[in-house]
Write a structure and sequence with these properties.
The complex is a heterodimer.
Chain A (H helix, E strand, L loop, with lengths): L3 E10 L2 E11 L4 E5 L6 H8 L7 E6 L2 E2 L8 H4 L1 E3 L12 H8 L8 H5 L3 H20 L15 H14 L4 E5 L7 H16 L4 E5 L3 H7 L2 E6 L2 E6 L1 H6 L1 H8 L2
Parallel strand pairs in A: 3-8, 3-9, 6-7, 7-8
Antiparallel strand pairs in A: 1-2, 1-4, 4-5, 9-10
Chain B lengths: L18 H20 L4 H23 L7 H18 L4 H23 L4 H21 L1 H4 L5 E2 L4 E2 L2 E2 L3 H23 L2 H11 L1 H6 L4 H27 L1 E2 L6 H14 L4 H22 L8 H5 L4 H16 L3 H15 L22
Antiparallel strand pairs in B: 1-4, 2-3
Helix pairs in contact in B: 2-7, 2-10, 2-11, 2-12, 3-4, 3-5, 3-10, 4-10, 8-10, 11-12, 11-14, 11-15, 12-15
Classes of the chains: A alpha/beta, B mainly alpha.
């Protein structure tokens, strides 16, 4: 059974149909990439999955459960974590605090306990801290642990945001353009990390990406989207050679 | 420059950075205990500083940490004050029970205000809280059975467990104890997951949500907690002013409270306390400076105009927002860094960076 099953997903903004019935399946342990020209509806799919938008029609089944109408804050607890195209980090907090926020879905302490910082809260905090340190080590972010996000370069922020998503210990990781704004070298690092996330951590990755070298390097399946419709699904090579995809990118 | 070498995760949980910092705070505490002896004439003003400090923490949690700016906090202060006085004087409840009840009632009102306010953001929320404060002020004036209406209500000195706190120094100590208690609880909550969730809501609601923060729950909690602190501050405030009247809890007081957190420095508890010192001491300085103003072209008459003080408060607020958005606390960290780095301090360290555009906003 597939990890994520999306069925006839559609959304209209006023008269504009951003997605017109998109269906696809993400297999567990794979890297699934969505490509397409600007405005094709790639990020819209992400926003639907993280329940920021309400779909007009269609269903989303994650791990056998219908998540089409669950509240947005429930998505992280169910095992879906995401990054954002324009980096939505908590800028006036340190990397460590951002990562600890990634642990929010695993919060078990209650308000009154926290008010007096009881030993239980202390112990739970240490547990969170240990989980966070694993991610810091995985992404080699030790040097930035106590830096404030506002003081970090763009490339590092991008990695930190991915790290924050990893702190939620997701089953499915949504990466919205992981390589945008990165240098060639940083993009190569990103490709390695995505492969490591899949093979070492066993997390399924669903990403939106423009850089075709990155896409071909890491993707098991590629889906090409244009004007809210699926053009082609297959391996990177197949999709790139598909006549409709060529037409969508080059015109004709 | 001191550098803390950390060898365990528990070191990140401590309240003080290291032993040196802790000793400084102990020294400050001892100094505050001795202060009424050194400055006996100012003991009354200083207890007001502590009460304002509690108000500052309250508004700091909401505005500085959760990013919800309220212009209605004078109303919460009033609710706390009136509720406390009603319980102590009219129902003859024990003092501490009365304070606890006032705190609970104010928190409940805070939650009730917070619920509809959740749908509003930014300036709309601020306007809504302003409207709330105006309504509550009207309630204070009309609900004569409880509040004494426009005639006002005299307040006796506090009596705890049979011990009278009528003495200025005793009341000073009481206020200090409450301020330290408030700071301790708030520091605890801020280093725990709830406090982090509040900061997350302030910096990016959409990211907070995607990490599993229930915006409605945490915003309501922030409102409730902030109001609860304000309720306790209100109970002390009632004893401090000695006479409750609806016009005390005006919009001007709300603005003063907001001025406090902005001038002190948004986003730090230090700022709340610095702001409290500033707001409580400023009127004293103004009234003393007024008499010293020379009569150049009617300047002395100008500064004695009734609207001069609020005008000055507004001017200070604007100047701080323009030139020192991080407030007194921000200026203090810069001064500290200057000496720590001497002679290598660079002005650009604190230059505000242009942040990347964020298009994916919910609003």
């Amino acid at each position: 059974m597939s990890l994520l099953h999306v069925e006839e997903l559609a959304i209209n903004f006023g008269g504009i149909s951003a997605l017109a019935g998109v269906s696809f399946d993400v297999e567990p342990g794979s890297v699934f990439t969505i490509i397409g020209p600007n405005g094709a509806g790639k990020t819209t799919i992400f926003n639907l999955l993280s329940r920021i938008y309400e779909p007009t029609r269609g269903r989303m089944i994650f791990q056998g459960e219908d998540v089409t109408h669950v509240p947005p804050h429930d998505i992280a607890r169910r095992g879906i974590a995401r990054t954002f195209q324009n980096i939505e980090l908590f800028e006036h907090a340190t990397v460590l605090q951002n990562f600890l926020l990634g642990r929010h879905a695993h919060k078990r302490s209650r308000f009154l306990e926290e008010l007096f910082f009881l030993p239980r809260v202390r112990a739970l905090e240490l547990e969170h801290r240990e989980a966070v340190e694993k991610v810091i080590e995985f992404l080699d972010l030790q040097a930035y642990r106590d830096s404030f996000i506002v003081n970090l370069p763009y490339g590092v922020r991008k990695v930190v945001e991915m790290g924050r998503a990893l702190c939620t210990q997701p089953t499915l990781l949504l990466l919205d353009e992981p390589s945008s704004g990165l240098s060639v070298e940083e993009t190569e690092d990103m490709a390695f990390w995505i492969q490591d996330i899949r093979t070492l951590l066993g997390i399924t990755v669903l990403m939106v990406e423009h850089d075709m070298s990155l896409v071909s390097a890491v993707s098991d399946q590629v889906l090409a989207l244009n004007y809210g419709r699926v053009l082609a699904v297959g391996t990177a090579r197949e999709v790139q050679a598909h006549p409709d995809v060529v037409k969508a990118y080059l015109g004709g | 420059m001191r550098f803390v070498f950390k060898t365990s995760y528990a070191q990140d949980q401590t309240m003080f950075r290291d032993g040196v910092q802790r000793n400084w705070y102990i020294a400050l505490f001892v100094g505050l205990l001795l202060l009424p002896r050194v400055l006996p004439d100012y003991t009354v003003d200083l207890s007001l500083v502590f009460i304002y400090g509690l108000c500052g923490i309250s508004l700091m949690v909401l505005a500085g940490y959760t990013g919800l700016v309220s212009l209605g906090h004078a109303a919460f202060l009033g609710i706390g004050a009136y509720a406390h006085v009603y319980f102590v004087h009219d129902l003859h409840l024990p003092w501490i029970v009365s304070v606890a009840l006032a705190c609970v009632i104010t928190a409940a009102v805070g939650v009730l205000v917070g619920l509809p306010a959740l749908r509003m953001t930014g300036v709309y929320l601020t306007i809504a809280t302003l409207a709330f404060a105006l309504i509550i002020q009207e309630v204070f004036a009309r609900w004569e059975h409880v509040t004494g209406g426009l005639k006002g209500k005299p307040v006796d000195k506090p009596v705890l467990f049979g011990v009278s706190f009528a003495n200025d120094v005793a009341f000073y100590m009481l206020c200090l104890a409450f301020l330290i208690g408030g700071l301790w609880l708030t520091l605890n909550i801020l280093r725990a997951p709830t406090g982090r969730a509040w900061v997350a809501i302030r910096d990016s609601e959409i990211a907070a949500q995607s990490l599993g923060v229930n915006l409605a729950v945490y915003k309501t909690m922030a409102f409730g907690y902030s109001a609860a602190l304000m309720g306790v501050a209100g109970a002390l405030f009632a004893h401090k002013v000695g006479f409750l009247a609806p016009d005390i809890f005006s919009v001007l007081l709300s603005i003063q409270l907001l001025l406090m957190v902005v001038v002190g420095g948004l986003g730090s508890l230090h700022g709340a306390v610095y702001g409290a010192v500033f707001v409580a001491i400023l009127p004293v300085i103004i009234s003393q400076a007024r008499d010293a103003v020379p009569a150049w072209g009617g300047l002395d008459r100008f500064v004695k105009q009734p609207g001069f003080e609020p005008g000055l408060f507004g001017l200070i607020l604007v100047l701080f927002i323009l030139f020192e958005p991080l407030g007194i606390y921000g200026r203090w960290t810069k001064i500290k860094l200057y000496f720590a780095m001497f002679p290598l301090y660079k002005r650009a360290t604190f230059r505000r960076q242009k942040t990347y555009m964020r298009s994916e906003r919910l609003r």
